[in-house]
Design a protein that fits this description.
The complex is a heterodimer.
Chain A (H helix, E strand, L loop, with lengths): L11 H21 L5 H5 L2 H34 L2 H16 L2 H12 L16 H27 L2 H8 L4 H12 L1 H17 L2 H6 L10 H8 L7 H24 L13
Helix pairs in contact in A: 1-12, 3-4, 3-6, 3-9, 4-6, 5-6, 6-9, 7-8, 9-12, 11-12
Chain B lengths: L5 E8 L4 E8 L4 E5 L6 H9 L6 E6 L2 E5 L12 E4 L11 H11 L4 H14 L15 H13 L5 E5 L7 H18 L2 E5 L3 H7 L2 E6 L2 E7 H6 L4 H8 L9 E11 L2 E8 L4 E7 L9 E4 L1
Parallel strand pairs in B: 3-8, 3-9, 6-7, 7-8
Antiparallel strand pairs in B: 1-2, 1-4, 4-5, 9-10, 11-12, 11-14, 12-13
The chains are: A mainly alpha, B alpha/beta.
Chain lengths: 267, 294
């Protein structure tokens, strides 16, 4: 048996080029880091502002995503085929939409001349706007990851729990959510990663005010336009985002639903 | 609460297929339900436990209507009708002890009391000391024992057993069968047992309901149904009964005739009954020999 199949060996060349194209730029970024001043670069006042703002808004946005996304995922997972497909497509739109367009859309809904302008809410160009932009782009990650897990675990365990006398909330907390736990966790982690990496929607909807709406990605962008944080700080922040991304990937892998959830025993 | 009297006339219309079955079980009685695949056993159980809505008929426990086409509809959680299926369906994220404690805790029993109770149940089903294991760490038979304990721990008014032994190997199945019989008797639980196995029906139940194409085609005491099959299905099923269930007969050969390509031997049992055996030509058998017929 040829375990590696029958693909033409020459295909390994474009494969390696592709891999290099993904890895080399990141290596170049790491090479640009000035390790001696790394700590000082990260802890410079403006960089620290961006860092804390990113972490704070990222966490709040993730919390919003959980509160709104878990019920949404449940609704989609329990909907019948056609409805579920439509809902899933709707949720996927922000995922594939250029974030700039998302930011513009938020502006047209919440801006002074937007649909909700009559309310007098001062949302755009505030920290709240940052959180909303992040929630907008990150929510689909959580919903889709969790929806898959909920659909897979199905309703048979819920029925069993109901027959044993459990009420709806007991079933939700003690059966439904724990069974979808791995999906929820990877959804939350991906969601957080997407939130702190968010740039386009934030730039349009929240602006770029240091300490108020200037998150890490915006600070990095600004630095290379010759303003705000130093370029060394920008590189240091980029490194931080890269490390976060890798850590997130490792976490998601580690918690991927393993074979331990299979119910069948032996003998 | 202990076993309730079950009275039901279940009508479910699925267009191409309709179920129209009358079911009765006295309090504490074990009734077997047999039928070919697709006869409607699962739908019947689903309707009794409240997951399949009725189109006609009713489900009554101790004379109180749990379900009727025109209402009321008592939710599955408030019925006390628990299903134990072919798959144990233990909650994979909970330990054996937590699985058993799940029902009582859902009904408001304090955590410590429910767990202590669960340990007693584990002992009852022969799994003392395995309470901390998760389902994946238990064998199929052990999982089924936990599932039985989990069902009985809720003191179900009616227990529905849907092929509870089918996915187990014969030895394990024998152990669970004995356990089922013992625990259902001890707890006085009313139970319906769906099975494909005539021997299971005979050993577990006192009465039998035969369900074919969504209709009850025969019902009565198990042995009476075997003795007078009303349909080809029942005839076939009765024929699968292991012979061990009838005692072996000793008979003395009184006459042997050869001819027509067979040896025919007439034998008489101790109580005077006579049998004629057609044996292959060349069989050496003389009057006075004692033969055993199984």
């Amino acid at each position: 048996m040829r375990r590696r199949g029958y693909a033409p060996p020459i295909l390994v060349v474009p494969a390696v080029i592709g891999l290099a194209f993904l890895v080399l730029p990141l290596a170049a970024l790491v090479g640009k880091v000035e390790w001696s001043s790394l700590w000082a670069d990260i802890t410079s006042a403006q960089a620290l502002d961006a860092l804390t703002l990113s972490l704070g808004t990222g966490l709040v946005a993730t919390a919003f995503c959980v509160v709104l996304g878990v019920p949404l995922a449940l609704v989609i997972a329990r909907a019948s085929g056609r409805t579920a497909s439509v809902l899933r497509a709707i949720v996927t739109v922000p995922l594939v939409l250029p974030p700039m367009v998302g930011g513009l859309s938020l502006l047209f809904l919440f801006g002074r001349s937007g649909w909700l302008g009559w309310t007098g809410w001062q949302i755009p160009f505030s920290t709240i706007a940052v959180v909303m932009a992040q929630t907008f782009v990150a929510l689909p990650f959580l919903v889709l990851a969790l929806e898959g897990a909920l659909r897979t675990s199905g309703v048979t365990f819920e029925q069993t729990a109901a027959a044993l006398g459990a009420g709806r909330w007991t079933i939700f907390w003690r059966v439904t959510l724990p069974l979808a736990g791995p999906g929820l966790l990877s959804g939350v982690i991906l969601c957080f990663a997407r939130a702190i990496g968010e740039f386009g929607a934030t730039a349009l909807f929240a602006g770029n005010a240091p300490g108020v709406t200037q998150t890490m990605p915006l600070a990095i962008y600004t630095a290379f336009n010759g303003a705000g944080v130093s370029q060394a700080s920008a590189v240091a922040l980029s490194l931080l985002l890269l490390v976060t991304a890798i850590a997130v990937l490792l976490l998601v892998r580690a918690w991927r639903p393993s074979t331990s959830t299979s119910v069948k025993g032996v003998g | 609460m202990s076993g309730a009297t079950l009275d039901a006339r279940v009508g479910v219309d699925r267009g191409r297929y309709t179920l129209e079955a009358e079911v009765h079980a006295d309090a504490g009685e074990i009734v077997a339900v047999m039928g070919p695949s697709g006869a409607g056993k699962s739908t019947l159980f689903g309707a009794l436990s409240g997951f399949v809505p009725l189109d006609t008929g009713f489900v009554k426990l101790d004379g109180v209507t749990m379900d009727a086409a025109a209402g009321p509809h008592v939710a599955p959680r408030d019925r006390g009708v628990v299903l134990l299926g072919q798959e144990p369906r233990l909650f994979p994220h909970l330990t054996a002890r937590e699985n058993i404690a799940f029902g009582p805790r859902s009904r408001g029993t304090a955590r410590t009391a429910a767990r202590a109770d669960a340990d007693v149940w584990l002992e009852q089903v022969g799994l003392a000391g395995l309470g901390a294991r998760r389902p994946a760490e238990l064998s199929g038979g052990q999982q089924q024992r936990v599932a039985l304990a989990r069902a009985l721990a809720t003191s179900p008014r009616v227990l529905l057993l849907d092929e509870p032994l089918t996915s187990l190997d014969p030895e394990t199945a024998a152990g669970i069968r004995a356990l089922l019989l013992e625990q259902l008797r001890v707890t006085g639980t009313t139970a319906l047992v769906a099975t494909h196995d005539a021997a299971d029906a005979a050993s577990l139940a006192s009465r039998l309901i035969v369900l074919e194409n969504g209709r009850v085609t025969q019902t009565g005491p198990v042995q009476a149904v075997w003795d007078a099959p009303a349909t080809p299905f029942v005839t076939i099923v009765a024929g699968t009964l292991p012979r061990e269930t009838s005692a072996a007969l000793q008979a003395e050969v009184v006459r042997v005739d050869e001819g027509d390509g067979v040896v025919s031997a007439r034998a008489r049992t101790a109580d005077g009954a006579e049998v004629v055996l057609q044996l292959p030509i060349g069989t050496a058998l003389a009057p006075g020999a004692v033969i055993t017929i199984r």
